[in-house]
Amino acid sequence: MLIAPSFAILTMGSGDYLGSTVRDLTLANALHRRGHKVVVYWMLECNEELADAGIGHRMLCHGTRYHFQRPSEFLDRVVGGALFLLPKRLRVRAIQRRGGYVERLLSNMLRSLFAGPEPDPALARRLRGHIAEDGVTHLLAGFGTLGPLAMAAQGKDAQFDYALTFQGDEEFAALATRIGLGEPFRAGVRQAMTRSAWRAIAVSEDYAQRLVEEIGVSPARLQVVYNGVELPGPGARPDFAMIKAAFPALRQDTPIVLYLGRQESEKGIDLLLYAARLLARRGQAAPPMQLVICGATAKGQGYRDVLTDLGRHLGLAVHHAGTVAPELRGALYAHSHCVVYPSVNREPFGLVVAEAMSHGTPVLVPDYGGVAEVIHDQGRSGGLSFRTWDSGDLARQLGRLLEDRALHTELAANARVVASRFSVDRMADGVLEHMGMRPQPYRAAAGGAGRRA
């Protein structure tokens, strides 16, 4: 008798990896909606609000576990448990006020996984116990970095297999190198990949190549499965009044240029400000636009404060906000002339870019990393690219989007078609087929979850 597969998603709720967390919970929702049993095991922080009703949740460990270089059961279970009685916004605010604290926690977590002969033995035993209690047959680790923990939990006789997904692991690799664990990190990840029943998943072709170059994994042990986004259904655009309520000074008759995503230095938002200033220098010939910047931050207000000061110094009128609700996020995509994603990082993918195109909005991205793959499909393009790190070229391409109506119309018409390549169903099908399972038909879920910027 065949046993129906039961899934666990092992992920981290840290704000540094919000895009990765969204991907993992989107996959969890997709599997659950197809009738599979799904439970999410959280590390450091949790984002249960991203999950559909009916999905189980367990806090595998709190961030306090890694306050010191050696994992602390007391700080994890007792102190961490008590802190989690506080509202999440208060916890996040307290951590962000302590400069470098998140990096400290992540550094100590890496030490526990890669510095010794066994990766955090007590946590591996806890994970194994949860898996046995929940009847999990397939553990999906949302980061390749967590591979050694999954491998240790599996041991030699566990009744489950695990699959690894790489998304954002280059940041862990860089941090491991900074603390003197570069080679143990790479060796540990490679060993966990070898022990897995399946090839590891990379979220773009470019990212797969980056893993080969930087971590030394074999390309034969990698499979590309692109991330998925919820495609908006047919219907009228959201009312502009929703945007007006959040940004009273915005006008509907002037093009909106939007950046939406994490406000951190690696996202290159300052390049967008320089590009806007270069266009403004054209005086009367400058194309009219309204610049909107919004999204969460994981490391405090430092970079946001820099952006505010820089915009003021450059004489730009910037409509600036933090986290936006899912409904406002969709309205901003739908009413924006274009979305600019000016990252200075070699991005693994680009969820914001796929989301924007799904609303029929052209995008502008660097010609570097997995994000550059997202805007093209079978000869169609849903946006333009600019030379990475080049604010002058960013200004030129942005000017084209604002001034060339025929070009903008063509890209907007292509955008939805290109974005359909990254549907949630395609991602879920790809993951299931990769693990040798026939995808089950979709069924309506009892409750849905929103997405936060």
Tell me what you see in this structure.
The protein is α/β, with parallel strands linked by helices. The protein folds into two domains: 235 residues, Glycogen Phosphorylase B (Rossmann fold, 3-Layer(aba) Sandwich); 182 residues, Rossmann fold (3-Layer(aba) Sandwich), CATH 3.40.50.2000. The protein has 18 helices and 15 strands. The C terminus is likely disordered. The strands form three sheets. Strands 3-2-1-4-5-6-7 form a seven-stranded parallel sheet, with helices on both faces. A six-stranded parallel sheet has the order 10-9-8-11-12-15, sandwiched between helices. A two-stranded antiparallel ribbon has the order 13-14. Keywords: Transferase. This is Glycosyltransferase involved in cell wall bisynthesis. InterPro entries: Glyco_trans_1 (IPR001296), Glyco_trans_4-like_N (IPR028098). Pfam families: Glyco_transf_4, Glycos_transf_1. It comes from Pseudoduganella namucuonensis.
Helical segment count: 18
**How many separate structural domains?**
2
DSSP helix fraction: 40-55%
What would you call the shape?
Answer: globular
Q: Which class of the largest domain in CATH terms?
A: Alpha Beta
Determine Rg (CA atoms, Å): 22 Å
Biggest sheet statistics: 7 strands, parallel
Number of strands: 15
pLDDT average, as an integer? Answer: 92
* Secondary structure category: alpha/beta
Q: Output the CATH homologous superfamily of the largest domain.
A: Glycogen Phosphorylase B
